[in-house]
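INFO  loader      accepted 1 record
INFO  loader      residues=210
INFO  predictor   begin
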Amino acid sequence: MNYQIPLKKLSNLVHTVSDTSFLSDFVNQSYYGVVWDRQIPANIQDWLNKTDPSLLPSFREICHKNEAREKIVNIFENSLLIKQIETEWLIQDITKLTKVFSNLMKVDYIRLRMEVVSTNSCRKFHMDAVKSRLICTYRGQGTQYGISMDGSDPKNFKTTPTGSPILLKGTLWIENNPKIILHRSPPIEGTGETRFVFVIDPIFDLENEI
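INFO  predictor   done
INFO  writer      dumping tokens
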């Protein structure tokens, strides 16, 4: 049976905060996720939306949290983007999210991933096989999430605002974690839309990741 849950119930499971100081709710409370509701400065968002997608960097790196800024700077310096105020803002913001999330999860190592997406990547609703994950969509539609009581796709769901990081608990958060909050990348293939997405995973056992 496909149980459909009203959208208003979502706020009881995925909390929305307006400041990083409240992100501790993600680990201290029984939420399945937290959205940091914020807006990217208008000039930065305009630049992100208008930049040729082929110039945007894609990467996947595992690094110590203290080396994250250096890694990110190197990636952007080796990209096709011209260094300017907007790229520096992006570097600073990615570094900030990395620091905030690694401290929140109390880990020294993290996996960083940035992707340029124009297909229906991860279009199926799911729960990630990680302990937790931060997703920030800098360009295009954000992550979609909803309640599922029986494993079926939520018919009612929300879309995370562009530029607002969403923190989600995965199947490894607790043993036998019920898959109540499912999420997906919005299906955009054939629409001409391009998304620019940044993802952070905490690394608890570095040896298993090498």
